[in-house]
C-alpha cells in the first residue's frame, strides 16, 4: 500500500482539526477555570487565582466522602461484574456451539440498548411502588416496601447491569485465546474440572480479567446517568457532583477541578493497566 | 474427558442472562399496563401510552433531534474516520500510532468531562444552543468507534489485493473504492451501528449543550424521570427497545454483527 505523505496528511488532517477544535481545545481551556476563585452567588472572581478547588477535594469532608464512595463503587461493581460475568463468558466460549450466538446476542442486546431506558427499567423494578416491592407485598413476605433505590443497592444493581456486557465480551475473547490443548493436558494429567479451571484457565485469562476490570472500573467511576437516576439527589458520586456544580450551583471552578481530578484518575488507571499488561505479556 | 462447563456454570450463566433482560421485560410490561404502577399479573392492558407519546409534540421534536444528530454525526464520523484510518494504516505519516491514540482519546475521557469542557468552550465562543455544536460534539464521541472499526478491518485484509489493483492500473483511490472498501464494509457497518447507538444514547455530553427548548430523547427521559415514573416513558422506551432489536437483528443477518463486538 503506497501512499504519498501529502495524501496521508490530507486524509488525516480534517479529523485531526475537528478533534483539536472540539475536544482538545475545550479540555485544555478548562484548566485555567479550575484555578479561579468562586464566590457563591457572585460567580467567578476576576483576577484571582487559587488552588482551593483542588485542595478541597481532599480536605473537605463532603467531597472526600464522594471521592471514596465513587472509588468504592468502582471496585464493588467491577468485582461483581467479574464474578457473575465469568461463568457466562465461560459458557459462551466453551459451552455447546449452538448456544454461542444466542448467548452472545443476549449480552449485546442490552448493551446496545439506551442507558436511560435501562435505568428506567430498574426504576420500574426497584421503586417503592415498583414491581419487586409490589410482588413481595402481594406475596405477604414484607409489610413495608424495601428501600432499593436512592441508595447504594440501586446504583450498584444498575451499574453492574450496564457494564457487565463489556466485562463478559472481554472475558470471552480471553478465554477463547486459551488453547483447548492446555486444558486437555491438565485433565489428562489427572486434574479435575475445578482444578483445571483454577490452575490453568483462570491464570491464562489474567490479562483479559485485567482489561475487563480496568474498563468496568473506569466506566463506573465516570458514570453519570445511572447514579443520577437510581441514586437520585441523595446518593452522589463524582460525575453527579460535577453535573450539579455546573448546572445547579454554577460553580464552574469547583466543577472543573473535580472534572480534572476524575480525568487524571481515569487516565492513570488506564496507563498503569497498559504497563501491567505489557509486563505480563513479556512474561508469558 | 470432556472439558465443557459443568451444570453449575450453565445455571449461573442462564441466571445472568435473565438478569440482563430483566429491565427490558419490565419496561415493555409497563408500557402496556393500564395502571401507572406495575403489578404481576398486570391489572389491565392498554395502548394508550403509545398514542400519548406519538401525539406529544415534546416527544416528537426530541425524537426528531435525536435521529438528526445520530445520522448526521455518524455520516461525518464515517467519512472523516475512514479517511484518517486509511492514511494511518498505510503508514503515510510519521507518528501514526500517536495520531491513532489521539483519535481514540475521547473513548477514555469521562463523557461528563467532555460535556462540561464543551459547555465552557461554547459559552466562551458564544455559540451556545446551536445544532452545529451538538453535531460537532456527537462527532467527537462517535468517531473513535469508526476509527477503531476501520483500523481493525484494514488490518485484517490482504495487502496484496490492493497492490494487484494498483499494478493493473487503478489509481490509489480507485483501488480503495473498488477493492479495499468492499472488503472492509462489514466492519464499517458494525462500527457505524456502534456510532449511531452511541449518539442516540448519549446524555452526559448532550445535556450540557442543549439550548432552551431543545431536547433529545434520552435527555427528555432522563429529566422526566426526576418528576416520577410515568408510563409514557415506558412506552417511548419500548419503542427504542423495538428499534434496537430490529437494528441488531438486521445487522446480525447482514454482517454477523456479534463477531465485530
SSE map:
The complex is a heterodimer of chains A (284) and B (261).
Chain A lengths: L4 H30 L1 E4 L3 E7 L2 H8 L1 H34 L2 H16 L2 H12 L4 H8 L13 H26 L2 H9 L4 H12 L1 H17 L2 H7 L6 H10 L4 H32 L1
Antiparallel strand pairs in A: 1-2
Helix pairs in contact in A: 1-13, 2-3, 3-4, 3-7, 3-10, 4-7, 5-7, 5-11, 7-10, 7-11, 8-9, 10-13, 12-13
Chain B lengths: L6 H26 L15 H7 L2 H33 L6 H13 L2 H14 L6 H25 L3 H9 L4 H30 L15 H9 L5 H25 L6
Helix pairs in contact in B: 1-10, 2-10, 3-6, 3-8, 4-6, 6-8, 7-8, 8-10
Q: What does this molecule look like?
A:
- The complex is a heterodimer of chains A (284) and B (261).
- By secondary structure, chain A is mainly alpha-helical.
- Chain A contains 13 helices and 2 strands, in the order H-E-E-H-H-H-H-H-H-H-H-H-H-H-H.
- A two-stranded antiparallel ribbon of chain A has the order 1-2.
- In chain A, a hairpin with a 3-residue loop joins strand 1 and strand 2.
- Chain A is globular, with a radius of gyration of 23 Å.
- Chain B is built from 10 helices and no strands.
- Chain B is mainly alpha-helical.
- The longest helix of chain B is centred in the first third of the chain and has 33 residues.
- Chain B is globular.
- The mean pLDDT of chain B is 88.
- Chains A and B meet through helix 1, helix 3, helix 4, helix 5 and helix 6 of A and helix 1, helix 3, helix 4, helix 5 and helix 6 of B.
